[in-house]
Design a protein that fits this description.
Blueprint lengths: L6 H18 L30 E5 L3 H5 L6 H11 L5 H5 L3 E11 L13 E8 L2 H17 L4 E6 L2 E6 L8 E5 L3 E5 L2 H12 L9 H7 L8 E6 H7 L11 E9 L2 E9 L27 E6 L8 H14 L2 H8 L1 H10 L3 H4 L7 E7 L8 E7 L2 H16 L3 E7 L2 E17 L8 E15 L2 E5 L2 H8 L10 H8 L8 E5 H11 L3 H7 L1 H6 E9 L5 E10 L3
Antiparallel strand pairs: 1-2, 1-8, 2-3, 3-7, 4-5, 5-6, 6-7, 8-9, 9-10, 10-20, 11-12, 11-18, 12-13, 13-17, 14-15, 15-16, 16-17, 18-19, 19-20
Helix pairs in contact: 1-3, 9-10
Length: 554
């Protein structure tokens, strides 16, 4: 096999190295991670990228800055492996000139723009250089090694820039150039490089001239180590999808270090005016005091009554349709326990439950290692609509053949609990001559009770008992939860909190592809403790949010 494989062996590997470097920040923590910040908040290589590019991702720091934090020496292994395939010594040939930016972009969806011969995306990799002459020497060295391996080189001058490429098969072709005093460019076709040079010399063609990109970059926080920009309509086109509705035009993502983990902030931009699904919250909802600390997944906020028509829901439908082609499959997988309840009771969650939740709420899953289906709890702030909603659920339970009984738990004889129960029969083993023996069993299908200013629903007696004896062992008292939400700005729309260790088995069953992601991102998943998602911001033409990854510091 040719050891000098071009784009597959160099550009794609470079992209993997870039993504590992970006994602690798999470396990590189030192005692003062805030000391590691980017020298700029925007990628300079955007001038080479077309405004029609579907995606661009940039690392805004020199990999050697991360090297000092690399306790596992994972980056060293990546760099050694990557450049060994090209016969290049990273420390000697690359490190002296490599600057503070590495950008990878999908430059075009089809290099020759001819749909009849298939679609071949054009990729562009831009490396900032602090020593242009050294980087030119590197380029000559790289292509000379490719020539020694059997490639025939082609050299051309294009608008004052020297382009070098080879005659490898299309899937292995490599082209490179040093442009000006700032960047070394690599691509999987010389045409991609020529287009990149045109984008610089005709500014109205490049990404920095795009109004969407200009608006998006204004949302970037200072000191982010990585940034990604997505042109959402073009991303959908790239995947051959016709979206049923498209509210958001672009998305920008930034990654920044936090003393407790990694914060990924994202902003979705639209030309339409949008409204928040509910009033922003200045503190965590009180309903969380009744969610046990053992919860693996918890969602909290206020006002579910308009959730289905909210801009957040529209974003979810657009995003899942873009990624999966359909939003229904992924929703049913991630929320399978709730979907099962909906099917078993013959209810419609938006109509029969969400419609009457206008105050605070919290819903949580409590995974059990011994069983595939987790226990659940649903807490909602009392109101007149809640009383009507509970009566409606009682009526639905009764119409499904369930009995509505009042009971108490031994330790809580003053706390009245309403239970939806089902009577079933079970056969006992007995002597055939005596005939079969039956017993009647009562199965609890759900319970609810009132505590303080909240109505609480659970799947089983054990969970209800845990809530009644919760004291200071609720999720809102959990130090890990407190650290996670502390990284999310206030006010916000509430939280989605996932304890990775408690939910890992459940998620792997519902989303099998996650196991592959864990293999590829093993250092991350080994060190991931939890993740917290929230939306915030008051701009009526953008939806802003963040994901905080809490990591092990030990």
């Amino acid at each position: 096999m040719n050891s000098q494989r071009s784009f597959i062996g160099f550009i794609v590997a470079g992209a993997i190295a870039l993504l590992i470097a970006i994602a690798g920040i999470y396990w590189f923590f030192a005692k003062s991670p805030a000391n590691l910040i980017a020298s700029t908040s925007q990628p300079g290589a955007a001038i080479f990228v077309s405004k029609l590019s579907p995606a661009m991702v940039s690392l805004l720091a020199n990999p050697d800055q991360l090297q000092a934090l690399d306790r596992e020496e994972e980056l060293s292994k990546v760099k050694t492996s990557l450049f060994a395939k090209s016969g290049i010594d990273y420390k000697q040939d690359v490190q002296p000139w490599l600057g503070n930016e590495i950008t990878l972009a999908i430059a075009t969806l089809d290099i020759d723009r001819d749909s009849e011969n298939g679609q071949q995306p054009g990729y562009l990799l831009a490396l900032a250089t602090k020593q242009p002459e050294k980087s030119r020497e590197f380029l000559e060295l790289l292509f000379s090694k490719r020539a020694l391996a059997g490639a025939t080189l082609a050299v051309e001058q294009y608008k004052g820039v020297k382009l070098i490429s080879d005659n490898q098969p299309k899937e292995d072709l490599l082209a490179g150039a040093v442009v000006g005093e700032g960047f070394v460019l690599f691509a999987n076709d010389p045409k991609v490089l020529r287009d990149a040079i045109n984008n610089v010399q005709a500014p109205d063609l490049n990404l920095t001239s795009s109004p969407e990109y200009q608006k998006a970059t204004k949302e970037l926080p200072k000191g982010g180590l990585a940034v990604a920009f997505l042109n959402l309509p073009v991303v959908a086109k790239w995947q051959g999808l016709e979206l049923p509705e498209q509210l958001y035009n672009s998305q920008i993502i930034s990654l920044a270090l936090n003393p407790k983990g990694l914060l990924a902030e994202t902003t979705f931009l639209t030309s339409s005016e949008i409204l928040s699904p509910s009033s922003p919250l200045s503190k965590p909802v009180g309903a969380l005091q009744y969610v046990p600390a053992s919860a693996g997944l918890a969602i909290s906020g206020s006002n579910l009554s308009n959730l289905g028509n909210s801009d957040l829901a529209k974003l979810w439908r657009q995003a899942t349709a873009t990624v999966y082609g359909s939003g229904e499959d992924v929703v049913s997988r991630l929320a399978k326990p709730l979907v099962d309840v909906q099917k078993r009771w013959g209810i419609n969650l938006p109509e029969d439950i969400f419609s009457w939740v206008q105050g605070e709420y919290a819903v949580a899953l409590l995974p059990e290692k011994e069983q595939a289906t987790p226990h659940w709890v649903f807490v909602v702030e009392k109101s007149e609509t809640v009383e009507q909603g509970v009566a409606r659920l009682d009526a639905i339970a009764s119409s499904n053949g369930l009995s509505i009984n009042t009971l108490t738990i031994d330790k809580q004889d003053k706390q009245k609990i309403s239970a939806w129960t089902e009577l079933t029969t079970a056969t006992k083993k007995s002597d055939v001559k005596e005939g079969a023996s039956f017993t009647i069993e009562t199965k609890v299908r759900g319970l609810h009770t009132a505590l303080g200013n909240y109505e609480i629903f659970t799947s089983d007696l054990e969970t209800m008992d845990e809530i009644l004896t919760i004291k200071d062992n609720s999720l809102i008292d959990n130090p890990n939860f407190k650290d996670s939400i502390a990284a999310i700005p206030l006010p916000n729309q509430g939280y989605i909190y996932l304890d990775w260790r408690k939910s890992q088995n459940l998620l792997e069953r519902q989303v099998p592809i996650l196991k592959l992601a864990e293999v590829l991102g093993k250092p991350f998943f080994d060190n991931l403790r939890s993740l917290t998602v929230s939306s915030y911001g008051t701009d009526t033409r953008s939806l802003k949010g963040g994901v905080f990854f809490q990591l092990n510091n030990s």
